[in-house]
Amino acid sequence: MPARLPLYYTFGNHMHWVDMEWLWGYTALPDSARDMLRLCAETGAKGNLNFDGIGYEKMAAEAPEALAELRAAIARGQIEVVGGSYGQPYGLFHGGESNVRQRVYGARAVRRGLGVWPRTFWEEEFDFFPQLPQLLRGAGYEYASLFFQWTWHTPEVPREDVPAVWWEGLDGSRLLTATRNALNLHQWPEDFDGLLKSDVPRTMPAAGIVQWLELLPSPDWMCRAELMLPPLKALMAHPDFEIRFATLSEYLEVAREHAVPRRYSLDDVFHGVSLGKNGDLFRRLSRRAERDVLAAESIAALLGLFGRPYPSQSWDVYPAWELDEAWRELLSAQHHDNDSCEGLCGHVGRRSYERSQSLSRHITDRTLHKLADRTSGPAGRMVVYNPLGWSRAAVVSFPGVKQPFRLNAIPPFGYRVFEPAEAAPVPQAIVAQDDGEISLQRGPLKVMVDRQRGVITQLFSPHFPEGALRADAPLADVEMTCQGRPDRFEIVMARASEDQPIIEVRRVARDRSVLSLSIALAPEVDAVDIRYGGYLTRPDPGLNTALQTRLAVNLPNARLIHDHPFGLSEIRAQGVYRRKYPTGDWMTSSQVFEEVRHPFTALQLLDFDGGERGLLYLHNGSQAMFRDAEADAVRNILSMYDAWDEDYFVRDLDVGVRLMPHGPITHAERWKLAQEFTRPVLTMQSQKPGGELPPAFGGVWCSAPNVAVSAFYRESESAGDYLFDFGKPDRSAQDRLDEPESQRADLSGLDGKPYAGRGMGYPYIVRLVELNGEPTMARLRLPGPVAVACRANLLGAPLEPLAVTPAAPPLEGWVEWSQVALALRPHEIATLYLDLTLGRKQPRNLDAHRHVWATVHRNEQ
Questions:
Q1: pLDDT of residue 580
Q2: Which residues pair with 658 in a beta bridge?
Q3: Which of 352, 462, 549, 687 is the most exposed place for a label (fewest CB within 10 A)?
Q4: Helices vs. strands in the chain: H and E counts, helices first
Q5: Beta partners for 833?
Q6: One-character DSSP codes across 648-684
Q7: Strands 241-245 and 184-185
């Protein structure tokens, strides 16, 4: 009798508090966990648990007994925690800093709730972008899987013939990764049919079945242990195979010797999501909420440098709890079900976005008010705050003054005080119009609009004296399909006035959809701003029938440069994929496919780059793009209807884009311009005479133009509680030796401290990213003495101490300055923990005022 071939088997059990517990009840997570443990108990299988991080936090409060059962299963090696993000996002669609916090808040929740760090990245829904391996390594991950299940979406990643690859990120970071291959199974028992009849289990080295499950023992659900047990037991009884159960990391160790290097790009994958749905409402909410919480963090961190008095609503030097809550609401709202199932559970996600914004904005408002009152100057002065990590220009309006003003060199993570006499008025655009055209012009920058069609016919600038647009492809024309036929928009009105140099266009479609356009010259840069608004009749379902606009640039053979979280790269967009939709009820109706040709994404920007010149297209949330190869153009989806949402459709449209002609430009410059477009300065006017603070100040100054300081914030030292054991690394020594030297985390600590912020109370944290792909020595100037500076991983584990030296002040001020230098690899994302002594908490001597309280109740006399 021939020997049975070894065949490995592991599964991932995917479930989440977001959506599932909202709609299926409080027992969704504990019931799923226990159904998983039943499957293991009856078969001896080992598996992997993929809950959202917020789910573990909720279980600790709502189902502690079930959480204890999971801890026991993990301790005996039966279950491994995988994924571990806080809100299981489609990471590609969200900002870089949101992706960092997803990993940090999630990993810390797993550590606190289950006593282990997640070491294996494996999410059921598509989560991929080129910088993700680096973020995962920075959060302590060693392993990964790129098998994403088809559910509401249809993700595609390259299929491999080997069981494992070394998945390499943009900076060279690597993870030992399970592949998308012929032995991957979805959650249906029927998926076993025919698998063992193929040659793959017999020919693939270290062959292993990797299966996704979504276990929930409910008649309202289709994946249950009772359904999975028969095919799994039949597999165990198969005469040709010896089934060996393993967790995913255990299986990857078996497959390690067969792994080959792979660096996948976004040209190699397709997210398979209805991106563009409902005017990208949730992508815009995500961007705004992230913008608001980052601004609140940085201004609160800045004000802490100035000592007391703190804002009246904040007893402490930094509002850590409020900001943590703002992040938790934001991260849970970014959950993939709030994107995919917007019509089912999105109302809850929308409230989470709104609560995050309300928390952040309250912090910003009260802190900015305190900052304005403490700056020197007469009553009525305006304080302008820059929430970005580099100096910038901005246009601000002064109350009671009609014309806006341009203010240059607003410091990074800092402010400047000004009065109208100190700033230059913005030159007003000149309006010219006749029966055929309307134009706006400011210097050599000019935009022309066809009055009869309501479209932009040409854009002139010093870089495009002959025009930036192709003559046969006007801009801001739109198309969509309703009831099986194209829905054409007819011009109703196009007008502009010299007093208000904005071209307004109104167009109405056959089905009575109304589209409004607002076209203006951007006040702070040489660019054209377009605002699409209106009220839409629902288009036919699908990406190809969506409301979309075309952009064709007068640059033959231009490269397309797009951005993704913490990175930019060229995109060719040559793939052809499938997207599926239900024909009725989302759980029971038959499903149909549409062919999607040449799709790609642009998180914030798309540049048509001709080398010596180009046209930069910035947007405020419309990420879905198609490359129209035949027309040598790009189409941008403005809104679509997703059949998965059944009757739900958001009819309101609110889209903003900016077109910026340019000469030679770097990736870092592109990225910073995109941030400035959607993250405006904040202003506050003080009504009282000023105080002791200087008229201008910045929190962090970076010397390297190719490096962006993307975050400046603090966290409570308690964030490091229970996270690290003294002198005991949580990851294998062999894995640490496989890392680049600059990434190795000595978890025994810096000077014996296992957490980089230990002893600092509220450590300052600075995040930097190198964007041009160049090795760099970055020098940061910081205010005041710096008692401790170290590079750390994302979780707060120290990597190396950094020397602190005196520095020349970047501005005239009242403090000494310090400098920290660090070498950055190409595309590196670096995290620093700093003890800035100016920002240490200053307690009040309340004991000196005990008489106010101690005897006031003795009022009998």
A1: 96
A2: 529, 618
A3: 687
A4: 16, 49
A5: 765, 790
A6: ----EEEEEEEEEEESS--HHHHHHHHHHHHS--EEE
A7: unpaired
| Cβ neighbours of residue 307 closer than 8 Å, sequence gap 6 or more | 838, 842
Short-list 121, 84, 83, CA closest to 106: 84
Beta-bridged to residue 117, according to DSSP, are none
Nearest-angstrom CA–CA distance, 740 and 174: 9
For the entire predicted model, the pTM comes to 0.95
Is the model's pLDDT at 435 over the cut of 90? Answer: no
* pLDDT over 80 (residue 258): yes
Look up residue 341 and give its two tokens: 């199932």
Sequence-distant (6+) residues with CB within 8 A of 318 are 300, 301, 304, 714, 716, 762
**Token pair 């999105």 is at which residue?**
346
pLDDT at 170: 97
Q: What domains appear along the chain, each with residue ranges and CATH number? A: 5-268 (3.20.110.10), 278-398+680-685 (1.20.1270), 430-678 (2.70.98.30), 700-839 (no CATH)
For 698, list phi and psi in degrees, rounded to 5: -135, 145
Mapped onto helix, strand or coil, the DSSP state of residue 200 is helix
- Are 786 and 776 in contact by the 8 Å Cβ rule? The answer is no
Closest CA to 103 of 125, 124, 88, 81: 88
Residue 596 CA neighbour count, 13 Å, CB half: 29
Q: Judge whether 19 and 51 are in contact, CB under 8 Å.
A: no
C-alpha dist (Å) from residue 600 to 23, 284, 603, 608, 610? 33, 18, 10, 14, 20
CA dist 252 and 8 (Å) reads 10
Token pair of 414, please? 């800092």
| pLDDT at position 751 over 70 | no
Backbone angles phi, psi at 686, to 5 degrees: -95, 135
Over pLDDT 90: what percentage of the chain?
81
Strand 47-50 vs strand 79-81: parallel, antiparallel, or unpaired?
A: parallel
pLDDT digits (tens, 9 = 90+) for 575-618: 999 999 999 999 999 999 999 999 999 999 999 999 999 999 99
Residue 141's pLDDT is 96
Instruction: Check if the beta carbon of residue 179 is closer than 8 Å to that of residue 210.
Output: no
Q: Look at 861 and 204; give whichever has higher pLDDT.
A: 204
Tokens linked to 627? 């490359």
The first and second tokens of residue 793, run together, are 């991983």
Query: What does DSSP assign to residue 401?
Result: -
Give dist(CA 69, CA 72) in Å, integer: 5
Strands 143-145 and 120-121, sheet pairing: parallel
Measured between alpha carbons, how far is 167 from 130 in angstroms, rounded to an integer?
10
Q: Which residues contact 587 (CB under 8 A, 6 or more apart)?
A: none
Lay out the sheet containing 478-479: strands in order across: 478-479, 547-551, 633-639, 624-628, 599-601
Enter the tokens of residue 488.
């054409």
* Token pair for 444: 């050599």
DSSP state of 770: E
Which tokens go with 860? 């009998």
Amino acid at 846: L
